[in-house]
Known about the structure:
Blueprint: E1 2-7, H1 12-17, H2 27-40, E2 43-51, E3 56-60, E4 63-70, H3 81-94, E5 98-102, H4 110-113, E6 121-124, H5 129-132, H6 142-147, H7 151-155, H8 159-180, E7 183-186, H9 189-198, E8 203-206, E9 229-235, H10 243-256, E10 261-266, H11 273-284, E11 291-295, H12 299-308, E12 311-314, H13 323-331, E13 335-339, E14 354-357, H14 361-373, H15 375-392, H16 395-410
Parallel strand pairs: 1-2, 1-5, 2-4, 5-6, 6-7, 7-8, 9-10, 9-12, 10-11, 12-13, 13-14
Antiparallel strand pairs: 3-4
Helix pairs in contact: 2-16, 10-14, 13-15
Amino acid sequence: MRVLWFTNAPLPAAQIRQGITPGGSGQWMTCLLDHLRRNGGVEVDVVTAHPGLKEDEFSANGVRHVVIAQPRFDSIFEARQRDLDRCVELVQRLNPDLVHVHGSERFFGLLATREMIKVPALISIQGLVDACLPVFFGSLSPREIWESETWFEVATRRGLLWRYRDYLKGAALGREILANGKAFMGRTDWDRAHLASVNPGAAYFHGDEILRPQFYGPRWELNACDRHSVIFTNAGSEPRRGIEVLVDAMQIVRREFPDAELRLAGTLGNRRGYDRFLRRRIVQAGLENSIRYLGFLNADQMVEQLRCAHAFALPSFMENSSNSLCEAMLAGLPCAASYAGGIPSLIDHERTGLMFPAGDAPLLAESIQRIFRDDELASCLGRSARAAASERHAPARIVAQVMQAYETLAGSSQGVQHVSYSESR
């Protein structure tokens, strides 16, 4: 079977060709690609488009990669006709049995929903931008939003306000794609419910994600961790991730555990207005000596940091299925995560992790304190998280899920009109 992938971001092979250091985002697609080619008997071509990339076409490890050039300062949510026409031409030239669009928020899904291609198409739901809009600014007040901007960002159309404007475009695209697509792949009760609310006749296939191989190794052990340390791995992205809530929670935690330390992995720098705002917030909270900035971590470094921490926290206001949470669970770390979006599909409260209402710093603090106080609870949560995540992210199981969808869609002579296959979590 020949499958043509459209990806929101370039895979590592294309990033390296473009002189970009591969990041952690989207690595699950590379893992899936490798397993499909080895175990699924599938030939895959990959097409991507992203602002700032140069036009390119090459082969690496038996996979053809096509990069569609876009202007450097374009919004990722632009849907230009010339890019759509280029994708149509590629579908015609590469002649796949099936098109798989990874993500419902960029223009690729329009190829199917506007019936620009005749090939059956599967659209994976990664995040739902429309559902994230109401909580884009997290717990920030209007004054704090303004304090998160620099004059340079306002003048050059960067910063939170301009990013929110881009999200409005992405939300509009996502609504059109979700409402008009015929076949989707998701992984949580949340994304399935959102699809059913606007497009109840669409086919829904359950498909989990294969994580980076390093996280399947030895699991976290309580006696080897740094006591009273908390790790958060999405620092510096946007207020929706809830880092302000975590900072407030750590103030409370330190009343009982004065040596508590918060470790932040991610791109929390000194240039962006929002990053500067966060650093000021940390100082105002009196935590400047209780924060360790880890910066960008590759997979090996991330695994090491997870195994060193005492607890993992995810304070997001909205997520579908957070890969950072899934990685922490697979590593066997006790986790505290907000009850938001698709997270309840990942955590069984009190068994595989602890959950708290999104935005509730006192309850997040209590969850962390419970893990610090109770070694038996921490160990049980870690073991159960590891067991649940090992099953959820088992590569053979996920290859079977994806191949079930591919074979059902590619083998349907009537497209996907009568397909109703789905798998509960």
